[in-house]
Design brief:
The complex is a heterodimer of chains A (475) and B (459). By secondary structure, chain A is α+β, with helices and mostly antiparallel strands. Helix content of chain A is 23%, strand content 39%. Chain A folds into two domains: 2-227, PmbA/TldD fold (2-Layer Sandwich), CATH 3.30.2290; 235-470, no CATH class. Chain A has ten helices and 24 strands. In chain A, helix 1 (2-15) packs parallel to helix 2 (70-88). The longest helix of chain A has 19 residues, at 70-88. Chain A is globular. In chain B, helix 1 (6-24) runs parallel beside helix 2 and helix 3 (127-144) runs parallel beside helix 4 (212-222). Chain B is globular and about 75 Å long. Chain B has 459 residues and is α+β, with helices and mostly antiparallel strands. Chain B has two domains: 6-222, 2-Layer Sandwich (PmbA/TldD fold); 232-458, no CATH class. In chain B, strands 7, 14, 15, 16, 17, 18, 19 and 22 form an eight-stranded mixed beta sheet that branches. Chain B has a six-stranded antiparallel beta sheet with strand order 3-2-1-4-5-6. Chain B has a six-stranded mixed beta sheet with strand order 10-9-8-13-21-20, with helices on one face. Classes of the chains: A alpha+beta (475), B alpha+beta (459). At the A-B interface, strand 2, strand 3, helix 2, helix 3 and strand 7 of A face strand 1, strand 2, strand 3, helix 2 and helix 3 of B. Strand 3 (59-65) of chain A pairs parallel with strand 2 (48-65) of chain B.
Chain lengths: 475, 459
């Protein structure tokens, strides 16, 4: 396959491209979903294809195919070049970049789990899901729906370019999760969820907190607790934001603003703010391709889809903006170093600046101290997603929470939305706990420019925030 | 692959694959789905151009044997790749015998419906033309006003089709063409920043993006000068077509889907024949409208697409089904099976979605509607963020309307973002009015402005 990719590069250069990148993905995906007593999805996917980027006149053109025969590849290169050529005139911002020494990467850069999902058959994995449901039912109450899900994505990636870089590595992420829906006496439906996920081996599902029994129990218990939970009052309150929700804030509302393509075009509120203070000294955000996943969890991404080696990029350092997340073109335009953040969801798309593992760095509080610092307000836990806008405004759903009074956890709260602007929020971060947790899933994932779902890691400690707007019921 | 012989080639791939599958296991039932699409796209963002011209092709196979079912898909539509899926799916059945007692068989053969309009001129839309369209819209937006800070645009053209066959005798194909554009503008005044966008998606004729850059810019500027509402309480809310489409899609479209009904996630399960909304509301889902983007001769499992009435004057008429969920309910499919993944549709196992939703318009224009609300009301003009993450089971929603106006004495003035929350299903019952301003909008929903009472606003 490397020979075919090298031919693509050669052909693109012959046509007149200034620089050519060619990559090959051979990925396997499996999804197992059980809804109540029925197996809804047992899905196997093979995603195998080639993508070519041609650069010309400061613009780029992309083409891809699932067919690797030589004639088809010639067409692909010629289409990529043509798209770059017709775009060059309209490109008033030129994202050229200089050549660098070639990168040579081999399989040894990949993470090697003890029990790779490839080595276990489907029945091993369906058993994990069955155990989720059994345990969810044991610890839940008034359950109307119990869903168990297992997902895996793994495979080989190969890359080469006009510099002669050759990068080869294996990607892997697995995910085991449970969602329980229970019905309250007045007919409302409430949810409880839990999951274990990230680049890890199947042996991880034997660890405390990650076993199917623990995950199922936790989802069931949370749904049961929600039966008696109250609606969160609407208004502005102090907040303690749990690790996963903190990660979503780091990723969705801040991380996207730091992506180079967004900055280059001046659309990000972080444009031209390098070196400025945006948050308190308790707010630091890092994006890192190869974190200590055995300790913290997360995703293992040794290279991006431009063959750039993974980086640890401190985006926000104690409240001060330090770096953006780049492709080669955006890095060069903004006179920074590439950060290994140019990723594509699959071979059908050109790579663009994306996050890897994005997280708030931990603070020095223990849980008790965090609750004490919170004093009175909302402890918001987990998230079912949300939405953000380019100016940093966000709305996220916390799946559950607690009302906290004088540092003591009181009534459980139902699903509640948090909204605001990330830049305002960063200036209200008062502290974080010592514990850092990262998550990266097969289910969910990040969406940008039609590329969804891209597995990304996110996380942080628990953060105490001076004021957050909570939705809920007014009046 | 050429458009003219696309159907024949896809059907031939399906036919030979089914024959191969039969030789592997003559006791099993098979379904083979083959997808091919040519997708060209140009986007310009403040002068940065990204352009792609890709082929999306792939296949999916479902196998059923004694109520055990498996699914496998792979990129590519060559014989080898389809056979790979067949072999994977069979291997999965062999290692794992998980029965789904509710499965009663794949789709039975029926005469197909009609393909939507296939405007041939879209096939020959030149790539340079797409770049020009995108570039001109950006220029228009930038020219409009000095406070327009950023303009971005995207133009694209697609053509393709799919074929599906199964061992019960289904063997059908359908094709589609579309072209479309999107342009957004951001107007900035000091710290204030307002966004608006315009778009079109068409299968009947070539897009005409001229003028839309200016329109988006005008809209963004009109949102500047927003004041804080500084109030919290219950207000009537006017949802113009884009947010109204999001409301309908996030609420009724979800709870009317047969899978949500059967699996206990929809609160409408026992409400057929009952009034679930104001009698002003009639909603249909038309899978056969020639101009509908999702119009096809058949749905994703080969069942003929059709026109379905969901709500007739507030009364819930029917749910949307594919064969699997229809069989559980002992009824016919409504032709709403989809493979819903946007990027690689063939990878997604069949599911249920509306095809082309239409809300029947009323007879009041937007000015009439503004005058019809007593005291104060809030007008929402873009998709409130968070609305799509609402809970279909409970209907509870809480979202932030970034672009909103306070309506008072028939006049509107821009206000800073407000959070709007409430319950979808209660909202449908307290629908006050429906506008006459029917628009083709997002999520393939055509709707006019909707006016609701009873939602909480936090300003």
């Amino acid at each position: 396959m490397l020979g075919k990719l090298e031919k693509c590069v050669e052909l693109g250069e012959k046509l007149g491209a200034k620089f050519v990148e060619a990559r090959f993905d051979d990925l396997t995906l499996r999804t197992l979903t059980r809804v109540n007593d029925t197996w809804k999805d047992i899905i196997l996917r093979s995603r195998k294809g080639i993508g070519v980027v041609c650069y010309f006149g400061g613009a780029s053109g992309y083409s891809s195919t699932a067919n690797d025969d030589d004639k088809e590849l010639e067409k692909v290169v010629s289409k990529a070049f043509k798209m770059a050529r017709v775009s060059a005139e309209a490109a008033s911002i030129k994202l050229d970049f200089d050549k660098r020494p070639p990168v040579k990467g081999t399989g040894s850069d990949a993470f090697h789990p003890k029990v790779h999902p490839q080595t276990k058959d489907l029945s091993f994995k369906t058993d994990l899901v069955d155990r989720l449901i059994i345990n969810a039912r044991e610890s839940g109450q008034n359950i109307s729906n119990a869903t168990g899900m297992y997902g895996e994505l793994y495979g080989h990636k190969l890359f080469t370019n006009s510099e002669g870089s050759v990068v080869e590595w294996d990607f892997e992420v697995i995910d085991l999760g449970c969602r329980v829906t229970s019905k309250t006496t007045d007919g409302n439906l409430v949810n409880g969820v839990d999951a274990a996920r990230g680049t890890m081996g199947l042996e991880s599902f034997e660890e405390k907190g990650k076993t199917p029994e623990d995950i199922g129990n936790s989802a069931g218990k949370h749904a049961k607790e929600q039966l008696k939970a109250k609606a969160c009052p609407a208004g502005r309150f102090r907040a303690l934001v749990e690790n996963q929700l903190a990660g979503v804030l780091a990723h969705e509302s801040f991380g996207h603003l730091s992506e180079g393509d967004f900055v280059v075009v001046g659309m990000s509120p972080l444009s031209k703010k390098m070196g400025e203070r945006l948050g308190t000294e308790h707010a630091s955000i890092i994006d890192q391709g190869t974190p200590n996943i055995s300790k913290f969890g997360g995703l293992w991404l040794p290279y991006d889809d431009q063959g750039i080696r993974a980086n640890e990029t401190t985006v926000l350092d104690k409240g001060v903006l330090k770096h953006y997340l780049h492709s080669r073109g955006t890095a060069s335009y903004l006179k920074q170093e590439p950060t290994g953040n140019c990723r594509a969801v699959h071979f059908g798309f050109a790579p663009i600046p994306r996050m890897t593992n994005t997280y708030f760095t931990p603070g020095n509080l223990n849980k008790e101290e965090a609750l004490e610092l919170l004093d009175t307000g909302v402890y918001a836990i987990q998230t079912s997603g949300g939405q953000v806008q380019g100016d940093g405004s966000f709305l996220f759903k916390a799946i559950r929470g607690y009302w906290v009074e004088n540092g003591e956890m009181k009534d459980p709260l139902r699903e509640v939305s948090l909204s605001g602007n990330i830049l305002a929020l960063l200036s209200k971060v008062e502290g974080g706990t010592k514990d850092l947790h990262l998550w990266a899933g097969y289910f969910g994932g990040c969406g940008k420019s039609g590329q969804f779902p891209l597995p990304c890691g996110l996380g942080g400690p628990e953060l105490v925030i001076g004021e957050v707007t909570f939705g809920g019921k007014a009046g | 692959m050429e458009f003219e012989n696309l159907k024949d080639e896809l059907l031939s791939a399906v036919d030979s694959s089914l024959k191969y599958a039969r030789t592997i296991d003559s006791d099993a039932d098979f379904e083979v789905y083959v997808y091919y699409e040519n997708r060209t796209q140009v986007s310009i963002n403040q002068g940065v151009v990204d352009a792609s011209d890709v082929i999306v092709e792939g296949n999916a196979v479902r196998v059923e044997k004694q109520k055990s079912i498996s699914f496998a898909s792979s990129s590519g539509i060559s014989t080898d790749r389809i056979r790979r899926s067949i072999n994977e799916a069979i291997a999965s059945l062999k290692t794992l015998s998980i029965k789904d007692e509710r499965f009663k068989g794949f789709c039975e053969p029926k005469p197909p419906g009609n393909e939507g309009t296939l405007a041939k001129e879209i096939l020959s839309l030149d790539k340079e033309e797409l770049v020009n369209y995108a570039s001109n819209m950006v220029k228009e937006g930038q020219k409009f006003y000095k406070r327009i800070h950023a303009v971005g645009s995207e133009c694209g053209a697609e053509w393709g089709g799919f074929a599906v066959g199964n061992t019960l005798g289904v063997q059908q194909a359908s094709r589609g063409v579309t072209n479309g554009f999107e342009v957004y503008c951001i107007a900035i005044d000091g710290e204030e920043r307002r966004t608006s966008f315009e778009f079109d998606l068409d299968r009947e004729k070539l897009i005409k993006p001229a003028g839309y850059g200016t329109k988006a810019a005008q809209k963004a500027v009109s949102l500047l000068g927003a004041k804080k509402l500084n109030k919290t309480g219950i207000f009537p809310t006017l949802w113009t077509p884009i947010p109204a489409a999001a409301f309908i899609y996030a609420s009724l479209a979800q709870s009317a889907m047969g899978n949500n009904v059967v699996e206990g996630r929809s609160p409408l399960s026992d409400k057929i024949g009952k009034n679930i909304s104001s009698s002003k509301l009639t909603i249909i889902d038309d899978g056969q409208k020639p101009s509908g983007i999702n119009t096809d001769a058949i749905d994703a499992e080969g069942y003929p697409q059709q026109k379905n009435t969901l709500l007739e004057q507030g009364r819930l008429e029917q749910f949307l089904f594919d064969t699997y969920y229809a069989n559980i309910r002992n009824r016919e499919s409504t032709g709403n099976s989809v493979r819903s993944g946007r990027t690689l549709p063939y990878e997604v196992s069949p599911n249920i979605r509306p095809k082309n939703l239409e809300v029947k318009p009323g007879n009041k224009n937007l000015d009439d509607l503004m005058n019809s609300v007593s005291d104060q009301a809030i007008m929402i003009v873009d998709m409130p963020i968070g609305i799509l993450h609402s809970n279909v089971s409970t209907g509870e929603f809480s979202a932030v309307a970034q672009s909103a106006f306070l309506v008072e004495n028939g006049k509107k003035s821009p206000i800073q973002p407000v959070s709007v929350s409430g319950n979808f299903y209660k909202g449908l019952k307290s629908l006050l009015n429906i506008g006459s301003d029917l628009e083709k909008t997002m999520f393939n929903v055509e709707t006019p402005t909707l006016v609701f009472d009873g939602f909480s606003i936090v300003g």
